[in-house]
Design goal:
Elements (H helix, E strand, L loop, with lengths): L7 E3 L10 H4 L5 E6 L5 E5 H8 L20 E6 L7
Antiparallel strand pairs: 1-4, 2-3, 2-4
């Protein structure tokens, strides 16, 4: 488990499109996004994702891309804590 993350919840919740962002509010405060192509990753506050994409957007439907390689293939995992500030 990454430092600063107390627990993680898989976002798929048994559905192909993943959980809606509004449903993650019960368990998460952020989402760890990792590029499947190059491994670059970032933790994004859940409220920022909701503001940008809407609360009914499913995690698998986020229109995001890797700032390192440009890939749109990613893995998303919700987190119960924000990591410490750098």
């Amino acid at each position: 488990m990454a430092p600063g993350l107390a627990s993680r919840y898989p976002v798929s919740m048994g559905r192909q499109r993943g959980a809606e962002l509004r449903h993650l509010r019960q368990h998460a405060v952020a989402v760890d996004i990792t590029c499947r192509a190059c491994g670059h990753g970032k933790t994004i506050p859940l409220e920022d994702l909701i503001a940008a994409h809407g609360e009914t957007t499913h995690l698998r439907e986020l229109r995001i891309y890797c700032s390192q390689c440009g890939s749109r293939e990613y893995r998303a995992v919700s987190t119960a804590e924000m990591p410490p500030a750098d």
